Amino acid sequence: MSAGAVTGLRLAGVQTLALTRRSVVSEWRQLGNVIPGIVFPLLLAAVYTHQFTRVILLPGFPVVDSFLDFVLPASLVQSVSFGATEAGTELARDIENGFFDRLRASPCTRLPLLLGRLGGAVVVATAKGVLIIAIFLLFGAEIAGGPAAAVVLVAAAVLLVIAIGGLGQMLAILTGSQEAVTATFPLVFTSIFMSSAFFPTNLMSGWFREVAEANPVTWIIDPIRRLVLEGWSWSDVGQALVIPSVISVATVTMAVAALNRKLSSS
Amino acid sequence: MDGNTGSRSGDDVVIEASGLNRTFGEVVAVEGIDLAVTRGEVFGFLGPNGAGKSTTVRMLTTLLRPTGGTARIDGHDVERSAAAVRRVIGVALQDASIDPLMTGNELIRLQAVLHGISRSESKSRGAELLARVGLTGAAGRRVATYSGGMRRRLDLALSLVHEPSILFLDEPSAGLDPTSRLALWEEVRRLNTELGTTVFLTTQYLEEADELAGRIAIIDHGRLVREGSPADLKSTVGSPTLRVEVDPVFLESARRVLIGFGPARPARENRCAIGLDGGAARVAEVVRALDDAGVTVSHLELDLPSLDDVFADATGRRLEGAEK
Amino acid sequence: MSVATVDHSTNLGHAGMVASAICGRGMRRIMARPTLIMPVLLMPLIFVLSFTGAFGSLTRVEGYGTDNVFNWMAVYAAMQGAVFAGVGGASTTAEDIENGFFDRLLLTPGSRVPILVGTMAYSALRSTIPTTGVLLVSALGGLRLSAGPLALVAVYVATAGMASAFCLLGLAVVYRFRTMRSMILIQVCGFSLMFLSNGQVPIHFMNGWLHTVARVNPVTNVLRFARQGFLGDLTWSMTWPGLVALGAMVAVAGALAVHQLRRLAA
User: Does residue C6 fall inside a structural domain?
Assistant: First the structure.
């Protein structure tokens, strides 16, 4: 690698780190936003565990000791989804109030502008993921695939956050409006319900089952859940990591393309 | 419960406050305010930003409870007979109190309902008031489409729907262009002279207080520092300065003449200056005396003290945002 | 020389006019800006679709009480919508306080309580929008009026009552804290209260702390009352506890709101 490329890479790295730090600090300040992302999924899990005790006995339902084991992946995904659009709303806010123009005028290269923000989301999502799993374990849940599986769980959730974050940032660049980005949260929230997160798809029927089976969230939740309930499996690990990775790469690429279009047109 | 409506022996005092106090936690916003406004007066409350004007108005209009002292409007205690107070007052606050999603007509109608005015009467009152403030054409549009000046005019119209005998205006011309301001002053004068409405007006503009108010109270850091008619207040800071410019050959004669009309004051080369005892009324005499002494005057000017001088005299500072 | 010197403080006719003017103003605002009502309408629709889709198989569990999950979930979603509608009504007041219009309402010469009553009435009327939306969508899913038109009466009474109670609670909070942001607290309370009830499953499906909480939760009785017409006939034994619960919630919330309104000038 040429000296110029090395310094370019290092510069990009430093810039990304700086913007990550800014984004983490801002998320920390908005602790009010982080707390619902932890309390709400836990509340849901707690309530469902105590009201679905008969449901887990239905024929066709995966073999579990308690609904708690079943719902762990859902709570994880739901928890990290709470902050996932934050990167996008922040970007939209920066665009709205002109800070973005200042950033653009600075010697900051393009990719760190987006990655830096996602960096913040990643840090927070990792923290939330670890916390959720810890609390579940405390309440008696078991991860059959062991600690390695737990790491895969968190990694998959984080990749999902990057995927949603990239989508949010693309929206932010295309619309420049915070409201538009925030409006995606209900969609994300619903799409988690319209998947295998809270109920196995084989026990659903009709159009809803078709929607759930076509939902990428299901493709991520199912392998993760198998890691929790059945144990380690390389194919499940592969599916759990590859699918969100592919989606992340796609959405971040689209966001960068949108950014380039916006910067070159103005 | 106090029921009587107002008449007192001697002057008919409609707004009175005694030791009015308001604290917000540690901060003392208003302290020891004593006021007495008689029926038909236009009373000006002058002071810089943050002096406590709006806080005082909110207490007098029952929107804020005093932490100490008392206030009575038309004989009704603002705390114990708040509803009775609200019957007789009209209020236009600093931020126009309107709902941007409603139209002018809808707001007038709502205001009428709040004051128990019948639909037919509110229609005619509304039309008349909107015409007065020049909003007839815009009345059917949502207030969100109004300019700042239009919103204030609508706010004024709303405050008059129930024909109150006492009107509170909190910084009514803040943010208005000069033409709108003059129109507002005209309307305030008309309300006062034609309808006899008592007006309590707060402002940070000297000119406004000077133009409109029969009596002024100056408030600074929550306290009343001066009170009186504009003329009286100005005279308290001393007599106006008369400056006369003459040919150097007449200088001594001029000085000898002028000294008889008041004490000498610092002046430039070729000029004499005195503090003119008796004020502007005596200028004619001075001119005659100079003429009799054979002095040719090339320039004469009279500098009257302004309310800004009054404020500076009372507080040691110039009024912020003062209009010159 | 003022004209309107009539004492209004004890005049019921005047109070009624003020209340209906405030209520009418609220409804006109919705027509002026229909997007105001979108979240209140959409969220319950999202709920009913997500929950009936994900948990449709609950009907296979013995003792659920119906063979069509819409018969159980529709009322839950409608009442959730009513809570949103109620809080939304209080949010209008929060907006009024923030932009100064509330001062003009406070200057009414009569009692200020009719303003509160008018806002509550507006919320109750508002709640018919999500309720109707949910019922229409659920009808497409097979919702059955087992008790005929009385079923609809029960659910509309219940949702109007819930909206009123939460509007009053919201007003108590708004009069105290005077900002829009304080509404989030009530939203969260309302959602949690709805969740910790027999909203999704019958009480005898629950165990542990959830069972206890749901039993003492007044919303449980309201749901029973509102739902009965879709599960069978209306009976007095299912009706009176619901009406008592509604009455109690409205009374308590109302007392809090009036108390805070009186303190408002302090």
Answer: no
